[in-house]
Amino acid sequence: MSNTLLRIKQYIDYKKISLRSFEVSIEISNGSFTSQLKNGKTIGVDKLEKILQKYDDLNPEWVLTGKGPMIRNQTENPIDQLGEIYEYLRKHTYLLEEKLKEAEQKIQQLEIALNRDK
Questions:
Q1: Alpha-carbon distances, residue 34 vs 20, 51, 62, 67, 91 (angstroms)
Q2: What are the tens digits of pLDDT across the range 50-73?
Q3: Cβ pair 60, 67 in contact under 8 A
Q4: Whole-model pTM over 0.70
Q5: Which of 26, 60, 65, 104 has CB atoms 3.0–4.6 Å from 50's, for a disulfide?
Q6: Cα dihedral angle (54, 22, 16, 62), rounded to 10 degrees?
Q7: Helix, strand or coil for residue 58?
Q8: Are 22 and 9 in contact, with CB atoms under 8 Å apart?
Q9: Which pLDDT value is given to residue 1?
Q10: Where are the alpha helices (H) located in the chain, listed in sequence order?
Q11: What CA–CA distance (Å, rounded) separates 30 from 91?
């Protein structure tokens, strides 16, 4: 299961709100978050953005990495936090794209070797 989803669930429990109320508050379909949580899925950037906009006391760094406090200092600038989230996601997207390229190259090499052995 995604650690990010577990941390969001921990926040929901901390706020003492139901999963349904949470889904309504961030304008996602009924059962969407609950289903992701139960099925061990990941959360999309669009939903994460809605959550962080609606619940501005939720520390984005904590949600993404588990570092720092769950509840952030209200004096922090939310725009700065969104910039940090964007940068974090950009770096991880780049790393995933590189891993994908490596995997595709390996598949191509294996296919060549397989065809050569036929």
A1: 8, 14, 20, 24, 28
A2: 999 999 899 999 999 888 889 887
A3: no
A4: no
A5: 26
A6: -50
A7: strand
A8: no
A9: 46
A10: 3-15, 19-25, 32-38, 45-54, 60-65, 78-116
A11: 32
